[in-house]
Structures are given as C-alpha cells and as structure tokens.
Hints:
- Chain A is mostly helical and 190 residues long.
- Chain A is 65% helix and 0% strand.
- Chain A has helices at residues 19-30, 35-45, 52-80, 85-90, 94-100, 125-148, 153-187.
- The radius of gyration of chain A is 18 Å and the shape is elongated.
- Chain B is mostly helical.
- The longest helix of chain B has 26 residues, at 3-28.
- Chain B: Keywords: Capsid protein, Virion.
- Chain B: This is Spore coat protein JB.
Amino acid sequence: MWIYEKKLEYPARVYKTDLRMAKYLMAQYGGPDSELSAAVRYLTQRYTMPTRKARGLLTDIGTEEMAHWEIVGTMIYRLLKGATPEQLRREDLGAYFAEHDHAVYPVDASGVPWTAAYVQATGDPVTDLHENMAAEQKARTTYEHLIRLTDDPGVKDTLRFLREREVVHFQRFGEALVDVQEELTRKKVF
Amino acid sequence: MDSRQLQLLHEIMALEFTAIELNLYLDTHPEEQEPLNDYNQVTERLNQLKAHYEHLYGPLVSYGFSPSEYPWRWIEEPWPWEIQF
C-alpha cells in the first residue's frame, strides 16, 4: 500500500502566475514521458522483474515518481492561479479552460490527454529496463527544454532538481539491468 | 506557515531526500556497509525531527502512523501545494 506524507519531496518555487509555462510544464504532468507515465510504468513492470534488486528499485523509483508528479502538479496549480478565462484564452489555454477550468488535469503540452498507451510493459525485464533508461533520458531532455523556456529562477531551481533525479534513476536502472542480465545468464543451461 | 515551521520542514525535506537517494543506491548495492550506515543514521535523525515537527504542528502522515490531538488535525492547512517556499 501507499502512505501519503503531507510534504513535497522538494520545494515547488512558484511565486507568480505564468500561463505559458503552466502549459509547457504539462509535458511532464500528462505527456508520454511525464512523471505520471513513469510512476505507472515502473509500478506496473515490477511484478514481472526476476531479481530482488529490480523489484525493490522499481517499487522505490515508481514511488518517487509519484512525488515528482505532485511537485509538477503543484507548480502548474500555482502557475495557473488567479488567471481569468480571457488570459487563458490568449495563451492558448481556452480549450483547456472549457473542459477543466483551473483543475490540474493530465494532458501534454499540446492538450492531448494522458493515456495508458504511454505505459510500456512487455513482461521482458531486459526490454522493460531499456525502455526505462530511455524514458529517463527523454524526461531529462524535456526538463532541459523546460529550463530554457523560463527566466524564473524559482521555477528553474525546481526543474533542475527534477532533471537531476532523471540522471540518478537512469544510473540505477542501468545497475538493475546488469543484475537482471547476470541472473538470466546464470539460469541458462548449457 | 511561520518561518520556524518552514525551517523545520526544510530540514525534514533535506534529510528525507538524503534517505531516498541512499535507499535507491542500496537497492542496487545492498552489501555496501558505508551507505547503509549513512542510511540508518539519517533515518534516526529524520524520525527525531518528524516527531518534533508533528508534536508542534500536527501529523505529517495519517493512516495510523501518527496520533492526533483533538480535534482531528490531519485536515489542517496548509496542504503541500499551498506552502510558499
């Protein structure tokens, strides 16, 4: 099960409304390589992992991704705060407002709703771990793009933290992959 | 949230992040003694700080992990998305 802790993993430093940045950040909230996709992907794949290191790691990184999803959601909530329908319309968020008002709904930066098709789980642990390593790199790249899209030092700071976590997760998944490959080699009968 | 509460929360966040980072490292390096010692040290300090925080400001976790004074304190503000860091 999961226990909710009434705190963020890292401070969401947003002090002013910025609708354009809110829209861009939705990439990491409801896009293909968003924190939501990552959390569901890892927590889905863990059941069929063959080693205890991989099962533990997927459980823990999947859980950390939920905390990242909360940080991104908090940033979007604050970036949208107080915006009028007219302001939202001007920043291309009129369609979003029509369906979701100020709700923090998982769509990507273009407004496409999140879908389970973003969750890769093939049942092959080697394939799945490679998928995860690629996903972490894609998320790192997206964070780098997002950092370049804002001048706000607070927003940049939080995004830098999230970017760094992608690098660490990539490293850990690589180690889990070696462990799984060793396990599969051991199991082979020659 | 007053500055004293925010300061304590910051310390808890920093320590818990250290625990998360060590946790992931230990998942793939379970036989390394030094990070394990660090993890246990951080955990002990984190639990002390959390107990202190919860005594002053109410529960950080519900579901039976932390008792509450009357009236039920879990629903008190601020929720994490409302905190000005």
